[in-house]
Design brief:
Number of strands: 8
Shape: globular
CATH architecture of one domain: 3-Layer(aba) Sandwich
Radius of gyration: 18 Å
Organism: Rhodococcus coprophilus
CATH topology of one domain: Rossmann fold
Protein name: Methylase
Helix content: 25-40%
Length: 262
């Protein structure tokens, strides 16, 4: 992992204990992530841009090891002052979009591209995807400071596959409140004529329709909301287990930007 010049710029490095728990829980149960980890001959995972403290990298390693116990986790930071000694079976090193020459089967880059201009996203995605091991996946996401509102894109070697929104059932009034934490590729696209705007508006309407379920709690109301969305033809996968979070996942084709950025 030596001898390569890191690609990227130093970002703010804000982090916190359990900040990325919602995406971690999703990753533990997502069938595509599980398949990538279980099929890999070398289950190497890179957490890119872990910030001022490595706590979320350590948390991700512990959670993914419930899927594959021999996961190898490496946290990369472009700021050399943030690189810490390895512990709990996790390594830390200096690196950026070039991944320090590693070929991981899974990359997580949370709250990294949000601090870049929108026109830098495609190039960063391409470089990260090019560094994946065969069959590998990339998670590019954003969340608020406490991890109550999150959104991420899942990509493979070919490009984006899906968008997932996840939020605390008890700290969000309507699904569209999560719009402020959309990934950089979509944050400026929540306007009429764009797929992400149509999705959020439809989710708000379905949430309002499910209001009679409010007395049973926001999780039950959200399950009813998902049922309404499916009835309207939105390609929302069925929820096969009880979930702590409100989660909305759709294929990338539903929200792919329609208009050319100015």
């Amino acid at each position: 992992m030596r001898g390569q010049r890191p690609v990227g710029v130093v970002t703010r490095g804000t982090t916190g204990i359990n900040r990325l728990r919602r995406s971690d829980r999703w990753a533990m149960h997502d069938p595509e992530v599980a398949r990538a980890l279980t099929d890999a001959s070398d289950p190497l995972v890179v957490d890119l841009g872990y910030g001022a403290m490595p706590v979320t990298t350590l948390e991700l390693a512990a959670r993914l090891r419930t899927v594959r116990p021999d996961v190898r986790m490496v946290g990369l930071e472009i700021d050399p002052d943030r690189v810490v000694p390895g512990r709990d079976g996790v390594e830390f090193a200096r690196g950026g979009f070039e991944l320090a020459g590693l070929r991981p089967v899974l990359i997580r880059a949370f709250n990294v591209l949000r601090q870049y201009p929108e026109d830098a996203v495609d190039e960063a995605w391409a470089q990260l995807r090019g560094g994946l091991a065969p069959g590998g996946l990339l998670i590019d996401g954003t969340c608020d400071e406490l991890g109550r509102r999150c959104a991420w894109v899942l990509l493979d070697e070919e490009g984006p596959r899906s968008l997932t929104l996840a939020w605390s059932p008890f700290h969000v009034s309507t699904p569209s409140d999560v719009a402020e934490r959309l990934p950089k590729a979509l944050i400026h696209r929540n306007v009429p004529g764009e797929g992400i705007h149509e999705l959020l508006q439809a989710a708000d309407r379905a949430w309002a329709t499910a209001a009679p379920y409010a007395s049973f709690g926001p999780r039950v109301r959200w399950r009813a909301t998902l049922d309404h969305l499916r009835e309207q033809g939105w390609p929302v996968p069925p929820q096969r287990r009880r979930m702590r979070d409100c989660v909305l996942s759709v294929p990338w084709s539903v929200v792919a930007p329609a208009m050319v950025a100015a």
